[in-house]
Known about the structure:
By secondary structure, this protein is of the alpha/beta class.
Amino acid sequence: MKITVITIFPGYFSSPLSAGVVGRAIEAGYLEIETVDLRDFTTGFHRQVDDAPYGGGAGMVMMIEPLAKALAPLSETVRVLMTPAGKPLDQEMLDRFATLDHLTLVCGRYEGVDERVVEHFIDEEVSVGDFVLPGGEAAALAMIEGIGRLIPGVLGNDQSIAGESFRDSLLAEPHYTRPADYHGWKVPEVLLSGDHGRIEEWRASQRLERTRRRRPDLLD
Ligand code: ADE
């Protein structure tokens, strides 16, 4: 799979994408990340990508021309704009994006992008949560990490995807590892019992209880 990222900060992605599961996925050739510097599509000495909003108001707006030029050659890909005004990202969306051959992520900055970009060059708008970041780069990174681990072959053990939070609309159960007793803080006895039926029952009830307490909206 290939993901093209359009950004004014192409260097932003290099360090996080060299680490962990996704770093290995890129190294092994499961995933290719191409960063495109939006300023390469500007004209003029200042390489300007933003301008004042029509109608007045605070902040700056990303101009249509550099984005149009950057996005035109990517019309065969699914083009996603990262914006707090987008559809909230969830596991279902990641599952769908992970099946694509080529995805393009556009990182907005400033107050947002000229709406004509959205109308003519964007297939979907996605938000990573009900909060405002200074730009879409961290949001794009979250998408890349969420997608990368779903590409077949990237995670060795398919089980680790099957049992995780959100896979069946429930949060994951708490996990423990050695030591069984850390200065008196003990691991739940059932996990040491060796009784797999009881362990599964405990895990299922923990998932339900946690979801009920923390995310009742997921049970609706
Ligand atoms: N850009 C700024 N805030 C964002 C958010 N919450 N999600 C996606 N892109 C953003």
